[in-house]
Structure formats: structure tokens, C-alpha cells
Write a structure and sequence with these properties.
This protein is of the alpha/beta class and about 500 residues long. It has helices spanning about 5, 10-20, 25-40, 50-65, 105-115, 160-170, 185-190, 225-235, 280-295, 310-325, 345-360, 360-375, 380-400, 425-430, 440-445, 470-485, and strands at about 45-50, 75-80, 120-125, 175-180, 195-200, 220-225, 265-270, 300-305, 405-410, 445-455, 460-465. α5 links the parallel β2 and β3.
């Protein structure tokens, strides 16, 4: 099998060939290394760990076919730069963590290595996961491997997990980790024509993941198909005593849940999630997904989530507030960037200069918003009220899930947009990309984005399935059935090689 075909394999396909010994882990890893080097124009990988990868591959080859073999043995993965990896530079794509090398491993990545997965390197992202286009990264933006038909304009791969989505869509790794605070797994997946899953809050440990907004952040897989998401999620999940928000709940075998029919399943369509242009291609693709679900035996039910209209403003009060608190630790004293001081400068001036130099514009904006809503005189008016609205949004979902099993929505209002076209003058325009994804984060619910087809520009669009707490098996199985019915096999042209 040639190197090009090897990198087109998903996680499940790779495991099957490795188990049959038709390929070796070293051969597979070398194929991805070559592909990463050829794909440097995409700017997806910002730290390459090829020596480590080849060592892990050699170790995997020694145990394949033995009792010591684990679930992800020999599978090459990419890791978002938000996950701390021991003795490997981890910067959250920010200058304030310049050359930071953690002496510890995040729980999620350690679980992946325990399952004998292979680390190809760290992936690009928006600075501290704050952004929807991967344009706030200190490394520059990752580039979407897709292009509009007849255009050479560079498009965003989405954010904040833009490097992860670009790498998986361009076959630079078999799968990747992402984090989702307001849609940062699902929106990039939709923009690049792949699968992105945000698990229930507490399903995957947050320990060792650089924090943005602690009550929202959740790790999840970005993969080429639903089966791969099921395999990767099982490896990433599980209770962690180091994380006080980690749920002590059994981890199912998600792959075993796939393939069951969905006859009689009740899927809700919330009127509040409608797209503005009734004749848009995104609407047509959503209607197509609905028709396929009906053909599979699912019942489509109209539901209402009345507080959805307040989700976006609520998120952009609460998430910056938590960011303001979490990012206070970056002061130039213990690690990362430290500003050069004049002889008479005070410790306060050290903090001010370091944070001014180290943080990018979007991070500063969110810190200032968060500090403002938490300040004396504004706490009750903004932060406390937003927390009450968050409870109302969660209650909406609780009530709806008494009547239905899943909710179907668009993932994003549009397909991928050109880099530099949004957010430079009006950040609110960029924030609107999260309009369909944020509610699931506010409620802590599992949600998955699945490619549904191409729009009139030749770019992928996604649909989103939202489930009740801990219902990932049902969510994945429904997505698996819909994926097979959609049979979406279009791939981006290999223009970057």
C-alpha cells in the first residue's frame, strides 16, 4: 500500500491493517511524517515530535499481536497545543507561554499513550482557545485544506481547534484531540468536512489542559468518521481524581453501540435554531438530513427551547469572566514570558508589561470583559444574571429531553469564510459563528457535528446532533446511521503538497 493511501486510512482501518500485519506502525508513522512535511503550507503542526513518534511506533510494532497490545496501538495522532505534554513545548498558541515545557502530562493524552497511540506533534489553535477562525494564534492561522470552487483564496479551518481540523481533513494524522468551550470542536469539524464530538461535561478529564473557561471546557476527538470518534472517545474518557469536575461514571464501549437501527427514535427540531435564509444551501442540507432520518425510521418532532436567544450573550458574559480568573496566573513570575524592566519598575509594572506584551488582542479583550462583569457594581447586573439565564437554558433542555431523544440543528450558519474577512473590525460578527454550538456548552450536553454535503461554493456543511447527559452511545449510533445514509465521501483537493 503506497504512502498516500496509508494516510487516507481512519483509526479503525489503520487498526485493522496493523492487526493483520499488512502494515507496520513504523511504516504508517513514516507515511504521516512525510505527509506532514508536504503539508507545511497548512500551518497545522506547530511542534513536530517525529523522534518520539518513531520510538512509540517501534514499541507498538513489538507488541502488536501479543496480549500487551492496547486499543490504539500504532495509531498516529495530533495533539492540540492546549494539552500539556511532558517535556514537549506547550504554549496554547500564546506568546505569554513562550517556550513553556511542562514537567507533566495531561490526563487525556496520558490515557491515549496508555492505549499505545503515537504522538506526531502539537497542533495549531486560537490563542488560549479564544477565537472561531484560528487567526489569534501566535503561530499564524492554520489553513483550511478546502477551497471555494474556482478560487485560490485561503479559508479558515475554524477555531479554536483549527489546526486539529485542518490536520485530520488533510490526512496529516489519523485523528486529533480538540477542546470545546463554545463550539471549538464542532465548528472546525463542520468547516473541514469531518466529525467533531464534544462529550458531556465531566466525561473527559480537564487536568493538564490549559484552562480558558473551566465550567465550559471539555476535551473531545476530531476524526475522519463516527466510528473513529467512538474508538478515540473511549480511550480519552474516564474518572480522574485530579479533576474535581470529572464524573465518576462508567465509560461504555462506544464502538459496540454502533450499528443498531434507530426506528422509533424521537429527534427534535427546535424552531429557535432556524437559519435566516429559508432557501439557503445550509437549510437544504438540513432538510436532506431530516428526510434521511425519517427514512431510517426516526420520528421528527418540533420542540421549543425558548431561552436559546439569550445563549450567545450569556456565554460571552460567563466565559470571559472565567477566563479573567484563569488567566490571572500568567504574570511573568513563575513561567513563560517575562517583560524586561527598568531599574525602578515595581512588581505591578512587571505584571502590566508582561501581560501587555504576552497576550494577543482577542485574549486581552476577553480578559477586560470578564474583569468588568466580575467587578464591584456590575457583578449582580451581568455575571449573576447570566448564571440565572444559564440555568434557564439548561432547564429548557431538561424539559425537552423528557419528550425526545436527540436534537438536530445546523452546526454553523455558513460554510468556511476567507481568512481576514471577519472579526477584524467587529468581533461580534465572529462570535456569531458559535450561535448553534454554544447552548450545548452552557448546558454541559454532548453534541456531535457530522458532514452533510457541500454548499454552492463547493465547501462542506455540517449538521449537529445534541444528546442528553451521558447519552454519547445513542448520539454516536444515530450519527453512524446518518453518516452511512449520507455517504459523504468528498475530500479537499491536494493543493498544498
Amino acid at each position: 500500500m503506497n504512502k498516500l493511501k496509508l494516510t487516507e486510512l481512519g483509526i479503525k482501518e489503520s487498526i485493522d491493517l496493523l492487526n493483520k500485519k499488512e502494515i507496520s506502525a513504523t511504516e504508517l508513522t513514516n507515511a504521516y511524517i512525510q505527509k506532514i512535511e508536504e503539508g507545511s503550507k497548512l500551518n497545522a503542526f506547530i511542534e513536530k515530535t517525529f523522534d518520539k513518534a518513531l520510538m512509540q511506533a517501534s514499541a507498538a510494532d513489538n507488541v502488536i499481536g501479543t496480549e500487551a497490545q492496547k486499543a490504539l496501538c500504532g495509531v498516529p495522532l495530533g495533539i492540540k497545543d492546549l494539552f500539556c505534554c511532558k517535556n514537549i513545548k506547550t504554549q496554547a498558541a500564546s506568546d505569554i507561554l513562550r517556550n513553556f515545557v511542562p514537567p507533566y502530562e495531561s490526563t487525556v493524552t496520558q490515557k491515549l499513550w496508555n492505549e499505545q497511540a503515537i504522538m506526531l506533534g502539537k497542533l495549531n489553535m486560537d490563542e488560549f482557545a479564544m477565537g472561531s477562525s484560528n487567526e489569534t494564534s501566535i503561530y499564524g492561522p492554520a489553513i483550511n485544506p478546502w477551497k471555494c470552487t474556482g478560487s485560490d483564496e485561503s479559508l479558515t479551518p475554524g477555531g479554536s481547534s483549527g489546526g486539529s481540523s485542518a490536520a485530520v481533513a488533510a490526512n496529516l494524522c489519523a485523528g486529533a484531540t480538540g477542546t470545546d468551550t463554545g463550539g471549538s470542536i464542532r465548528q472546525p469539524a463542520a468547516f473541514t468536512g469531518i466529525v467533531g464530538l464534544k462529550p458531556t461535561y465531566g466525561r473527559c478529564s480537564r487536568w493538564g489542559i490549559i484552562a480558558f473557561a473551566s465550567s465550559f471546557d471539555q476535551a473531545g476527538p476530531i476524526t475522519k468518521n463516527v466510528t473513529d470518534s467512538a474508538i478515540m472517545l473511549k480511550a480519552m474518557s474516564g474518572f480522574d481524581p485530579l479533576d474535581s469536575t470529572s464524573a465518576k461514571i462508567e465509560v461504555p464501549d462506544y464502538e459496540q453501540a454502533l450499528g443498531k437501527d434507530i426506528k422509533g427514535l424521537r429527534i427534535g427540531l427546535a424552531k429557535e435554531y432556524s437559519l435566516q435564509k429559508s432557501n439557503s444551501e445550509a437549510n437544504r442540507k438540513l432538510e436532506y438530513a431530516i428526510s434521511l432520518l425519517k427514512d431510517l425510521g426516526a420520528e421528527i418532532v418540533e420542540v421549543s427551547l425558548p431561552h436559546t436567544e439569550f445563549a450567545l450573550p450569556t456565554y460571552y458574559v460567563l466565559a470571559p469572566a472565567e477566563a479573567s480568573s484563569n488567566l490571572a496566573r500568567y504574570d511573568g513570575v513563575r513561567y513563560g514570558h517575562r517583560a524586561n524592566l527598568d531599574t525602578n519598575d515595581s512588581i505591578i509594572e512587571l505584571y502590566e508589561k508582561t501581560r501587555s506584551e504576552g497576550f494577543g488582542t482577542e485574549v486581552k479583550r476577553r480578559i477586560l470583559i470578564g474583569t468588568y462583569v466580575l467587578s464591584s457594581g456590575y457583578y449582580d447586573a451581568y455575571y449573576k444574571r447570566a448564571q440565572k439565564v444559564r440555568s434557564l437554558i439548561k432547564n429548557d433542555f431538561d424539559q425537552v429531553f423528557k419528550k425526545i431523544d436527540l436534537i438536530l440543528t445546523p452546526t454553523t450558519p455558513t460554510s468556511a469564510f476567507p481568512l481576514g474577512s471577519k472579526g477584524t473590525q467587529d468581533p461580534v460578527e465572529m462570535y456569531m459563528n458559535d450561535i448553534f454550538t454554544v447552548p450545548a456548552n452552557l448546558a454541559g450536553l454532548p453534541a456531535l457535528s457530522l458532514p452533510v454535503g457541500l454548499d454552492e461554493l463547493g465547501l462542506p456543511l455540517g449538521v449537529q446532533l445534541i444528546g442528553d447527559n451521558w447519552q454519547e452511545p445513542l448520539l454516536l449510533n444515530t450519527a453512524f446511521n446518518l453518516e452511512n445514509a449520507l455517504d459523504f465521501e468528498r475530500k479537499p483537493q491536494n493543493w498544498w503538497a
